[in-house]
Amino acid sequence: MKKLSRREFLRLSGAVGAAAGWAMLGTGCSDPLPMASPQQAGATQPSSRSIDATQDAVASPTRQPTMPTSDQAYLAVARGEDPAGMVNAALAALGGIERFVSQGNDVIIKPNICVAYHTPEYAVTTNPQVVAALVTLCLGAGAKRVRVMDQGFGGTATAAYAISGIEEAVKAAGGEMEVMSSVKYADFDIPDGKDITSWEFYRDIMETDVLINVPIAKHHSLARLTLGGKNLLGIITNPSRIHQNMGQRVADLVSAVRPSLTVIDGYRILMANGPTGGNLDDVKQARTIIASHDIVAADAYATTLFDLTGEDIDYVKNAADMGLGTMDLSSIKIEEIAI
Q1: Which value, in Å, is the radius of gyration of the alpha carbons in the chain?
Q2: Nearest in space to 275 (alpha carbons), one of 177, 165, 153, 130
């Protein structure tokens, strides 16, 4: 019998369909914490590979964010009481969802759904109304399908999707919830990486037409804040190893992923004891949505919700230094909307 290469195995595995995913250690939320076993989650554990393994690595996608025209905002900030209305207003200021989504596109929305034990008011997972509003906009722009997914560390993905309120909201809006499967990860090159040169990413997320990154803005005990860059730890294997040099390695991930659009949920923000929270006294009603094609600019603006700057967050600063976006908010067109 001919021995299959790893790449051939991944291709064949994808063709016959994936088993249910499992909740992995140390995602975009936190360091490793107790979680459901792979057997409880219904799938096998992804293999642990060298952090710089290049054998059979796939070239990173060429997806690039769409730059604004002169009459479009570079970054939009909406404030108000209605999360869905704020998303709509922010996207309108950027030129509409049609700037990012075209007829027939495959769209993946990546929120933060890290744990299965906190409802939305604890500001640990992305606001379900924010996610649902993006699903509605994308389908309205003609997307052929819109999937929403994340890998968490606290409980199973199925439970986290339900308890966060995101599953119900997404399905009501016409989107699909996908449990991320262990067989859909593959090595991708990180050609611009300064500390890591390849990693295992979720293949569908890397290859989708449009990727919308939707973190919730919150405190993090190691990174100081979880924002757009840190949210990408939810699409890779071995995320806890990113923590070994988080400031640079998160920036390296950003260089490979390049989300089409970043929408930061600042409706409720977690000010302390993140990323898992659990105390409503740590939650602030900031009632803000931030959106941009530039993940660095979006993250830099989001730091101001915590009385910080982009310079205070290593992965934001390093991403800017790598030319992946700008932290200089005075140099870009920002439209602020009150609704």
Answers
A1: 18
A2: 153
Beta bridge partners of 109: 148, 212
Could you list the pLDDT tens digit for every one of the 339 residues in the chain?
334 444 443 443 443 333 333 333 344 454 333 333 333 333 333 333 434 444 568 887 778 889 999 999 999 999 999 999 999 999 999 999 999 999 999 999 999 999 999 999 999 999 999 999 999 999 999 999 999 999 988 889 999 999 999 999 999 999 999 999 999 999 999 999 999 999 999 999 999 999 999 999 999 999 999 999 999 999 999 999 999 999 999 999 999 999 999 999 999 999 999 999 999 999 999 999 999 999 999 999 999 999 999 999 999 999 999 999 999 999 999 999 999
Tokens found for residue 58: 């796939």
For residue 200, give the amino acid letter.
E
CATH of the structural domain 20-36+55-338, one choice from 3.40.50.11440, 3.30.300.30, 3.90.470.20, 3.30.420.10: 3.40.50.11440
3-state class (DSSP) for residue 270: strand
Q: Which tokens hold the place of 13?
A: 């595995």
